Amino acid sequence: MPHPSPTPARDGGRSTPVPPPAWDDVEPLPLGSAPVPAYGTGSLADLLPTLGAHLGVPGCDAAIPELAPVDRACVFLIDGLGWEQLKAHPDEAPFLSSLIASSRGGTGRPITAGYPATTATSLASVGTGLPPGAHGLPGYTVRDSATGELMNQLRWTPWTDPRAWQPYPTIFQRAHEAGVHTAQVSAPAFQSTPLTKIALSGGTFHGRLSGEDRMDLAAAQLAAGDRSLVYTYYSEVDGKGHRFGVDSDPWRDQLGYVDRLAQRLAEQLPPRSALYVTADHGMLDIPFDEQSRIDFDEDWELRAGVALLGGEGRARHVYAVPGAQGDVLAVWREVLGEQFWIASRDEAIDAGWFGPRIDERVYDRIGDVVAAAHDDVLIIASRTEPKESRMVGNHGSMTPAEQLVPLLEVRS
Questions:
Q1: pTM (whole model) above 0.70
Q2: Helix or strand holding residue 330 (H, E)
Q3: Could you report how far apart the first and last alpha carbons of the chain are, in Å?
Q4: What is the pLDDT of residues 130-173, one digit of tens each?
């Protein structure tokens, strides 16, 4: 099925961004120094369209030119395994590390996740082949303009119609309609979630509890068609990173385990196949001190004029009380501008943080102020987000540790 054109975007030339006011003691980070994701040439949103183009799916473009065509493609997404973390742990991941030099068609280069570098956003980018400004999941939590409430796009609470929230077909759906054998192999609990439906549905879903069973079934599904597109997923590298930190013993154990899973799958590839190992984001540990964890719930200055705090610690959406947008932007720049890239909504859009275009329905989901961490620092909310505020490992922003993800390739 042809890929529908995105909803007309808002005018990209709304106005010339106004330079922030000068303060005697603060020089905010210039927005132009933020490393914008490589949308259109080397981001997660470009992977499945490239594979779809190789498989003859109408409307797909081969945006990552280093990847050679293949008849059967399997994507193994390891939640939370960033490029920098993989490179730092060759002993725990000998198989994956051995693939680095030949990654991305022999260039040895990673790809970028997209902003923010968080699971719901990245999985939607993978599955739809669209950047966040089009698919409409631009953060961990964002404001639903229809209700005025924060919507958690990972847990899908409070409930909203998934198809209204993200109306575009997935690459899997389009591949299935084009006659490609298409399957997802993941934990059974993910089969009926709204995020799966709007980001990863199409073809058949196969739920398997163990990682070994997923690898074996993914290989079998890959062999089931002359043209095949298969996706499989593993989550616990991310889970151990959040709870114990990157480089902790539990995290290292998970990395070793997933390395063996990837090798198990690679050794079962049928002829004319390629396995692509990637991730949704990287991660870094943040110290537990007041300088590194700035508590919004205890900071009257940051709270002034703010109606809702969305996003997550390293990638915040700040929704102002009507009429207070300019004041909130000025205060956040003054207080945090040396540690965060602080942008107004339109500045972040014009800078391309969420992709080259923004659908009309997505515009108000982005904060009036957007704060992306540059330093090793978080904006926590100890009372309203107690669980998230206690996480050791964190992600979301545009730093290399969070943004760069592997694209490792094995061909049969």
A1: yes
A2: helix 325-336
A3: 29
A4: 999 999 999 999 999 999 999 999 999 999 999 999 999 999 99
